[in-house]
Automatic annotation (TrEMBL):
InterPro entries named among the record's database cross-references: Glyco_trans_2-like, Nucleotide-diphossugar_trans
Species: Chryseobacterium endalhagicum
Cited Pfam families: Glycos_transf_2 (PF00535)
Domain Glycosyltransferase 2-like: 6-123
Source domain of life: Bacteria
Protein name: Glycosyltransferase
Gene3D superfamilies: Spore Coat Polysaccharide Biosynthesis Protein SpsA, Chain A
Length: 251
């Protein structure tokens, strides 16, 4: 029997998009999964929509207090029973072969972490930029300068690396978690195939990179324990790479 995949999803006021996300999971060709959804006290009818789906693999928990995406992901991770950990935010989308392709590659290549290409789309899931390509082996060193790993397109093996929680006091919790993981494994492997869609919503795109430079600086200073000079160096590299990654949006 194939190993269980635990899908980790935080959600908050996701009623507009959650049905497309749910359908993308239900359409997976790989069927041995559990979906740990943690609702962060939504004020819309997100929870009502999720509860319409009568599938025992969908395991919803509603928090009593809003604690942010990192806290919600940690809640799901703590409940996860699967060997493989996959991440899917409540407004993103997987192609049907996502889980099967990712797990097959990990098993065949004995990989501890893999990531794939993903489409960068608007709120209607139409591409607005070229696909982000998984074209490089990821290491702790190169991940310091730019974060190539996105939750929607990355999976890791808990049997080989254990579970990694998200820091709840960082607004860049994804990057911190990936860096912590890459401290203990040598590399993450690329799958140069587009298997997911990342929805670039207006409220997140409008922040632009310049508004989160301070948060990124704290990734290095507070969470990696780097000196001020070293933190500034990596923040500058991250900012330049981030601008190149999304430059079309800012023009």
């Amino acid at each position: 029997m194939k190993d269980l995949v635990s899908i980790i999803t935080p959600c908050y006021n996701s009623a507009e998009f959650i049905e497309e996300t749910i359908q993308s999971v239900l359409n997976q060709t790989y069927e041995n999964w559990e979906w740990l959804i943690t609702d962060d006290l939504s004020k819309d009818n997100t929870v009502e929509i999720i509860r319409r789906y009568n599938d025992p693999r969908i395991k919803l928990q509603v928090l009593e207090k809003n604690g942010g995406a990192g806290n919600a992901r940690n809640n799901s991770l703590e409940r996860a029973q699967g060997r493989y950990i996959a991440f899917l935010d409540s407004d993103d989308f997987w192609y049907p072969e996502y889980l099967e392709t990712m797990t097959d590659y990990m098993e065949e290549h004995h990989a501890e972490l893999v990531y794939c290409n993903y489409s960068r789309c608007n709120e209607q899931l139409q591409p607005v930029l070229k696909d982000f390509l998984a074209d490089k082996v990821v290491t702790f060193s190169n991940l310091l300068k730019t974060c190539r790993l996105a939750p929607v397109s990355t999976m890791y093996d808990t049997k080989r690396v254990g579970k990694f929680l998200f820091p709840v006091k960082s607004k860049r919790e994804d990057h911190v978690m990936w860096l912590n993981l890459l401290k203990v494994i040598p590399e993450g492997m690329p799958i140069n195939k587009t298997l997911a869609k990342y929805r670039m919503r207006e409220n997140s795109v409008s922040r632009k990179k310049k508004n989160i430079i301070k948060d990124q600086y704290l990734v290095y200073k507070d969470f990696m324990g780097f000196s001020t000079v070293k933190s500034l160096y990596y923040t500058a590299n991250w900012a330049i790479n981030g601008f190149l990654k999304y430059s079309k949006i800012f023009n």
